[in-house]
Amino acid sequence: MSRAAAPAVPGTPLPASLRWALMFGNFVIGCGVMSVAGTLNDIARSLDVSIALAGQLIAIAAATMAFGAPLLAGWVAGFDRRRLLALALLWYGAGHAISALMPSYAALWPVRALTMLAAAVFTPQAAAAIGFMTAPQERGRAITFIFLGWSVSSVLGMPLSAWIGETFGWRFAFGTIAALAFAASVWVFAVMPDHVRPAALSLEAWKEVLTNPALMAMVLVTALSGAGQFTLFSYLTPYYKHTLGAGTGQISGLWMWFGAFGLIGNVVLTRVIDRVGPNVAVAFTLSLIALSLLAWPLGGTLVGTAVVLIPWALGCFSSNSTQQARLGIAAPALAPALMALNTSAIYLGQAVGASSGGWLIVHGGYAPLNWFGLAWLLAAIALSLWAGRRAVAFT
């Protein structure tokens, strides 16, 4: 019997190929999620809509994922994870391929929303599956490792989508993501064991999650930090072009610069999180993001902006990874629900941030974006510190 067909035994050593396949799946998911931000200029130009309206594609997709993740978590609870994760990536690829063919904004946004349902399934269920199969003492590192895919997508996916969007158009960028998703689907199906089915949660377990103040506060921290970041993050590409006068290569370079430090932050996190603890790691990563938002007006030039971006990049993806690990460690038995809720919170924060950022641009330009984002981040830090003191480990 092949390794892929062998039943999974929780706590046994996992093949490296499985971790890498799930990380690559998250890389593809991250590329697709961030592709609109990277190609925003060309989407607005080719579909003849404003930057603010094109930016709402981020909010629409994020809202779909925010509400889809917890709702779909219950529906897919009994599915074999090998088939579930592979099919989610297959759906993701097909959705991006169809999106690339859409002739107008009105036709694109519902297809984009449906495509993102796959992200609502893959990210939390991959984290729950790897946590289910990993020994408790290695769980934090395993979860944060597969989330390195998001960091790598910021290093390669975001700058490449920005370059492709500016050079060949957003449709070509979406087609590239479709091809990557199809490849990821095949890889995951080939290496994922059969019979990986984390225990389905009862209504009583969902009630326990939803009524626990510390756990729900941790989830809300994710939403607040996402709102703070995406108030500005959603509109960085047009900001670079229209305010800083950046060309195509410079825009791609800034995204690659951001992604490189994002990857560094996540790699460091995987090495220290089990030693320093997730509560400390969350507070530190969120503080790095807040520092960049506070210092944002000191940028003003391409070089200055690149310097200001460094703390934000170090904390950006590592904060999401450590949040997932914190929830998985705090309540392992409730991990499927918590991962789904936390994924929902990530995208809810993105939707709120992208929507509010678009409104602010219409009414005040780019200047107020960082200050509103900073307010969200300070609220997230305060709530995270409170939740860390109140958290009680579950078994």
What secondary-structure arrangement, pairings included, does this model have?
Elements: H1 16-38, H2 40-47, H3 51-75, H4 81-99, H5 105-115, H6 117-133, H7 139-146, H8 148-167, H9 170-191, H10 203-210, H11 213-233, H12 236-242, H13 248-276, H14 278-295, H15 302-330, H16 335-364, H17 369-390
Give a structural overview.
It is a single chain. The chain is an all-alpha fold and 395 residues long. The protein has a single domain (16-390), classed as Growth Hormone, Chain: A, CATH 1.20.1250. 80% of the residues lie in helices and 0% in strands. It has 17 helices and no strands. It has helices at 16-38, 40-47, 51-75, 81-99, 105-115, 117-133, 139-146, 148-167, 170-191, 203-210, 213-233, 236-242, 248-276, 278-295, 302-330, 335-364, 369-390. Helix 8 runs antiparallel to helix 9 (170-191), helix 11 (213-233) packs antiparallel against helix 17 (369-390) and helix 13 (248-276) packs antiparallel against helix 14. The two termini are 34 Å apart. The model is unreliable at 1-7 (pLDDT under 50).
Quick structural gist:
By secondary structure, the chain is mainly alpha-helical.
CATH T-level topology: Growth Hormone, Chain: A
Kindly state the number of beta strands: 0
Question: Mind telling me the CATH superfamily name?
Answer: MFS general substrate transporter like domains
Indicate the percent of residues in helices: over 70%
What is the residue-averaged pLDDT? 85
**What's the tally of helices?**
17
- Main CATH class: Mainly Alpha
